[in-house]
Each structure stands twice: as structure tokens, then as C-alpha cells.
Amino acid sequence: MTIPDFQKEEEFFGKGCEVVAGIDEAGRGPLAGPVVAGAVVFENDAAVVRELLALGLRDSKQVSEKKREKLYEFISREAKCWATEAVSEKVIDEINILNATKLAMKNAVLKLQSQPDFILIDGNATLSDFPVNQLAIPKADEHIFSVSAASIMAKVTRDRILAELDAKYPEYGFGVHKGYGTKAHMDALRKNGFCDAHRKSFEPIKSMVKFSSF
């Protein structure tokens, strides 16, 4: 398991940047619910870095739900600033998941109380037409401190949204599978059809929508 570090942030502090933000998303692949981006800024505080690593900061996919909640609370208190942004399944269907993800990332950055002069993005694509210096790094959520933190904030935020959808549509089990295409979810789709929370541009919902329109 890769342990993130603060070296990349320190590199850009050394180049004169004052506010460096890590950016990540949760929910690109599910069949239902929004895509959520997180943006997190830390000051160059070695004590906070050590404590958060001691609590087990990792990419959100590598830690349990219980630990993610604890990390979320710590980051909420100790980060210089942070923000999340959800883009709905309806917008995903209108502009596609890639553009929706980029929109969520841009809006999360714009919501930060301290606007960054550099952003570090998980993935291989930067944010076009966005006037902030930036660097996209594959698997940044595994080894760059602020990006790992952003992955936690995005994942916990999205899971909480899916818990609300689970209360609204209990027949689908959103609280368990979080909208991903598990066997239980597929069984629920076959039994109940789709609901407003589903992404109509994603298969098999896309075909179900087409069939229902005849």
C-alpha cells in the first residue's frame, strides 16, 4: 500500500507558490448518483502532516468507510481550507461523465476560501480553460498528500449523498453499493426498472430508457 507524502506540495512552495490544492473525484463509474470532486489545501505544517499520516491517510479506495469518516473529520478541522462539489446525474447525462468530472473539479476549486496558485490533479488530464497553474499526475491520490485528502473528502461526501438516495429509493440498495453496477444493483434494476437517480446515458439504463420510450 502506497503511503502519500508532502514532497510535491513542498516542491511548489519552494517555487514560490503560497496556496497549493490537491484535487480528486469520486463516482465516475457508478450507474447512479452524482460525481463529486474534492479540493483540499494544507499549510506547510509538518505536525499536521505527521498526525494525518498516523491516522492512516491513504487514497480513499484503500481505507475502510469507518476510517474514511475519521479522516474526513480531521481534514475538516486541520486543512487550511477545503471544498467539495457534486454534479448531478442529470448534468452527467447532458455533458458526459468526463466533462461533468472536470466541472465538479473546477467548481470545487472555486469554492475554496483561499484560492490556489497551483493545483495538483489526480489523473492524466488538466482542466482546460481554467486560469490556475496545474499539473495532472496519474495515481496522485495514492502518493500526493493533499490529493489523498481530497479523495477522502470527495468519497465521504458522495457516500453521504448516496445514503440520502437510499432513504428515498430503498428498493435499489444505494446505501450498500453506492450506485456501482454490483449484482445486487443489477438485480434491483431488472426488478424495479430505473429511477430518477440513475444515469440515463450509462448502460444498461440507456437501453432501458430507449425500450421504455417505445
Description of the molecule:
There is one protein chain. Strands 3-2-1-4-5 form a 5-stranded mixed beta sheet, sandwiched between helices. The chain contains 10 helices and 5 strands; from the N terminus they run αββααβααββααααα. The protein has a single domain, classed as Nucleotidyltransferase, domain 5 (2-Layer Sandwich), CATH 3.30.420.10. The longest helix is centred in the C-terminal third of the chain and has 24 residues, at 145-168. The model has no long low-confidence stretch (mean pLDDT 96). A hairpin with an 8-residue loop joins strand 1 (20-26) and strand 2 (35-41). The protein is α/β, with parallel strands linked by helices and 214 residues long. Helix 3 (65-78) crosses helix 7 (145-168) and helix 4 (89-95) crosses helix 5 (97-110). It has helices at residues 7-14, 46-54, 65-78, 89-95, 97-110, 140-143, 145-168, 174-177, 183-192, 205-212; strands spanning 20-26, 35-41, 81-87, 118-122, 134-137.
